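As the next step, I selected for study a record pairing a protein sequence with its backbone structure tokens, which the following lines show:
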Amino acid sequence: MTTTVTVSELPGLVGRDLGHSPYLTIDQKRIDLFADATDDHQWIHVDPVAAASGPFGTTIAHGYLTLALVIPLWSDLLDVEDATTKVNYGLDKVRFPAPVPAGARIRLHAQVAEVTEIDGGAQLVLNVTLSAEGADKPVCVAHPVFRYYH
């Protein structure tokens, strides 16, 4: 469920658990397109035959593909309705505890860790966890930083 707020209401979200996004399937086509976009064609990502006998038993998504999907999944959790500009400002920490096998469904869980006033808006630091359906460990944990301007 999407939480809708204004920029001035963002400080009230500190400590709030915003729940889970819907699931998103990471199919081989998406993995291949990411490989093409980044020139990262390592066999564990793009060669299903070789990957079948590799350490994961199948192709896996690039860690940075998983991380990049924070943006669309995050958009399902928070809408800042009066923000004229939304900026991905960076990351304070990122880890990839488990791989994302091709065909897996992932979703984002987010909590607002801090909100700071900035000139013309607010900066949010989140605690996010991406998990794959049925997996024991998260596939990504991160502390993204977003800025919202009036």
The mean pLDDT is 97.
